[in-house]
Amino acid sequence: MRARWRALLGGDAPPDTPVLIDAVEAGLRRLDEDPSPELDHRADRRILRRAHTGLEVGRALSRRFHGAILTADHAMTAQESLDTLLVPSNQEEYLPEIDDDTTRAAVIEELLLGEVLPALNAGPAGTENGLNIRWTFGDLRRRGD
After folding, report:
1. Distance between the two ends of the chain, CA-based, in angstroms?
2. What integer best gives the mean pLDDT of the chain?
3. What is d(CA 136, CA 42) in angstroms, rounded to the nearest whole number?
4. pLDDT confidence bin for 70, thresholds 50/70/90
5. Does the N terminus or the C terminus of the chain have fewer Cβ atoms within 10 A?
6. Count of C-beta atoms within a 10 Å radius of residue 89
7. Is 70 helix (H, G, I), strand (E, B) or coil?
8. Distance (Å, rounded) from C-alpha 59 to C-alpha 49?
9. pLDDT tens digits, residue range 16-62?
10. Which uninterrupted H or E stretch holds 68?
11. Quick one: pLDDT at residue 145?
């Protein structure tokens, strides 16, 4: 989602619907008013370009914790994915350049359902009803406790 939005803002991909055209114009106006890289930097800190594997998370935590890392796969429907991104705090993370909540929600819905999910569904995580999501859980204790 974030990569597609950045491509639209950067002119690397043309906005092809009225919703996207208006949103890109609004986003570019906001960036003209405040050209500091803080919005993009904040999103980059919170939205990983690549998800960490359970093994990577376990290795990082093992320096200070001991215990077990578990993974479980869950199916997530398109509606559940959309609902997740429409949580107000998530909207602001993915599209901080858009001030208007209604516009931001419309862009998320259009990009997610029209582009992002179809691309993900065409890959190995795609299922008949949505996406296969792997969650990583841990039962850990601080070393020395």
Report:
1. 41
2. 89
3. 24
4. confident
5. C
6. 7
7. strand
8. 19
9. 999 999 999 999 998 888 877 777 777 777 787 788 888 888 889 88
10. strand 65-77
11. 67
Q: What is the DSSP string of 99-132?
A: --HHHHHHHHHHHIIIIIHHHHHTSTTB-SSEEE
State the residue for tokens 């429907």. Answer: 77
CA angle 117, 119, 120 (to 5 degrees): 65
Q: Which tokens sit at 113? A: 């359902």
C-beta contacts of 108-116 below 8 A and 24+ residues apart:
108/1, 108/82, 109/82, 110/17, 110/19, 110/20, 111/1, 111/4, 111/5, 111/20, 112/1, 112/78, 112/81, 112/82, 112/85, 113/78, 113/82, 115/4, 116/1, 116/4
The CA-CA-CA angle for residues 43, 93, 4, to 5°, reads: 75
The 10s digit of each residue's pLDDT in 100-121 is 999 999 999 999 999 999 999 9
